[in-house]
Known about the structure:
By secondary structure, the protein is mainly α. The chain has 13 helices and 6 strands. It has 2 domains: 2-117, no CATH class; 120-256, Outer Surface Protein A, domain 3 (Alpha-Beta Complex). It starts with a helix and ends with a strand.
Amino acid sequence: xxxxxxxxxxxxxxxxxxxxxxxxxxxxxxxxxxxxxxxxxxxxxxxxxxxxxxxxxxxxxxxxxxxxxxxxxxxxxxxxxxxxxxxxxxxxxxxxxxxxxxxxxxxxxxxxxxxxxxxxxxxxxxxxxxxxxxxxxxxxxxxxxxxxxxxxxxxxxxxxxxxxxxxxxxxxxxxxxxxxxxxxxxxxxxxxxxxxxxxxxxxxxxxxxxxxxxxxxxxxxxxxxxxxxxxxxxxxxxxxxxxxxxxxxxxxxxxxx
Length: 257
């Protein structure tokens, strides 16, 4: 009985998202007028969720273009959970292979930043440490310390385009600067308290956070950052990250701050 019900449910979901169901009971339901109404309602909800989760993309391409693209995405990647707050995780990858978006090379990365906002928004709360917390450790201990990144922090380095500037302008409802320089940029998004905030990030700072996330100690993280950006001011980088709330904890062996 359970297997039969599960088979029916799987076939019903297939039918909702345009796939051919292998269940005669569902095929019979598809002929009913009410099924089309229900299917349209489900699709509409998914497209609405994507529109809410990717506002910068919507502003760049327009609502009609976005909703047409979103409808195709929904048919290919239906949601896997009932809550749609996180829906669209692989929407940036979809845009990267979506033929009508080929001329908009920056669009997938703008979408990645939109989804990073979603991830930061729903991440668990946590404390964050300050510059004073770090300087309280003796230098020898600080070098061996590992910095745990705040769970809401999301960072990216875009090597080939100013995706962050484009995203920020459209997220904030502003115009893209006329003097925009087409070069690589980095970005940090996080929610240290009640609201998601964002700021630019250098390639070295991104490498530093990568190392911290990999549980490297401060000495190793510093080395990796300077390999990517030899001229960076490391003290300023660490201070910026701590001030932003990007570090949740300092660990030195058995000691924790």
